[in-house]
Amino acid sequence: MSLAPRLDLRQSQSLVMTPQLQQAIKLLALSNLEIEGVIAEELERNPLLESSAPADDAPVAAPEAAEAPRDEPAGADELVMAGEGAGESLDVDIAAERFDDGPSESAAERIGDLGSGSGSGSAEAIDFDSFADTSESLADVLLAQAGATFDATDLFVARALIDQIDEAGYLRADLHDVAQRLGVAVAQVEAVLAGIQRFEPTGVGARDLAECLAIQAREADRYDPMMARLLDHLDLLARGDLARLKKICRADDEDMADMIRELRGYDPKPGFRYGGDPPAPVIPDLTVTRARGGWAIELNAATLPRVLVNKSYYSELAGGAQDRAGKTWLAEKLASANWLVKALDQRQRTIIRVATEIVRQQEAFFLHGVAHLRPLTLRQVADAIELHESTVSRVTSNKYLSCARGLFELKYFFTSAIAAADGGDAVSAEAVKSAIRALIAGEGDTILSDDTLVELLNAKGFGIARRTVAKYREAMGIGSSVQRRRARTLQRA
Questions:
Q1: According to the 3-state scheme, what is the secondary structure of 111-178?
Q2: Model confidence pLDDT, tens digit, residues 360-396
Q3: Confidence of residue 277 (pLDDT cuts 50, 70, 90)
Q4: CA-to-CA distance for 461 and 431, rounded, in angstroms?
Q5: Is 293 left (phi over 0), alpha (psi -120 to 50) or beta?
Q6: What is the C-alpha separation between 64 and 311, in angstroms, rounded?
């Protein structure tokens, strides 16, 4: 065996995740709204890309793509699939393809229409300031009241305390720590906090729920020793232990019922009256409608970006005087632009393929409701449309489908199977949850235990164990029979 150094040539194969392939895989997992952000970044980096939407009366014609480089990487589906040749090619004719059915008028034209009123150019421009959010936040409201209440020294302490009040209106700081940090006495901090707790909204500045309700009770002149003892034992009220509460509060049935009604009128989170971002609406990526002889499955055109390669600009740049570095840069931008357009088109085609198979597998759900939802896995859809399971998983992430029965995430249609009690076809776990929810909603005065629910579900053909019923019930946020019975008692109090 020779110990001398030498050079060897070896040949090997490996799967390389090129930047373009990583980009195509990333696009699959993004929703239509998230795609808009990616497109905006690419438009800033690549001068050969443009976002265009022709006018309503103009024929739709995508600009012809410039000649792409010869050595293009394979498509995302082709490389992540289990076998060769099962994916669709990303090599599309950009000159002949239209990549979306988005709204035909451009953003500039829409803004012009809004600002022009009747359409004439002499009208006033649109006032964008009118769209600004003018609502005050909780901190703004408290600071305004503090400025009118405290002097300079106390105002300094008040601002520090207001900074520690969360959006629900609760103080999330220790008074001793605040006093040490500001270099003031704890008594001064407590006095300032007492002043803040008299601000609007009533109950703000409390350190826990009991103190928040106590502040509101004092404001309503209902804070007596009996109410104080009730607020000191809110845990018993939460458990519905009214017998022990009446003994502790020294109250009869009428007094206890009156105090509980009073507490129901208080706000446990007073800070939410001000500011806070409203929940963002979920915009569907797909729409499913009933059509003659089947289903119409379409991508939401309102959220689909339209990206084209500007061939005329490329020809202008390529025809000018350029050095070697400039030609290399231009070729890279052209390859990147062509790849992005093709990747977006492939993404749309893949989403439609997956959604079509989901609708085919779950057609009974779209016709009759959640009780007819079938068990479905990613593997079943992937095998049916000859894609890799990971590709189907990316497609169904962050995507929402709108149909006549409501708005659903694509992941909603993939549920585990529950064996049927009569030995028939398995049923979906979502169908079982729906049956449990319906039984509990209609239980009336007779509270159903988990054992009773199992018997009723078995009678409906669901072969399910008691522990599974308890697991599904807890997952839906429904309390046990004991908790529901206590809640029913509190409602009657």
A1: HHHHHHCCCCCCCCCCCHHHHCCCCCCHHHHHHHHHHCCCCHHHHHHHHHHHHCECCCCEECCCHHHH
A2: 999 988 988 888 888 888 999 999 999 889 889 998 9
A3: low
A4: 11
A5: left
A6: 7
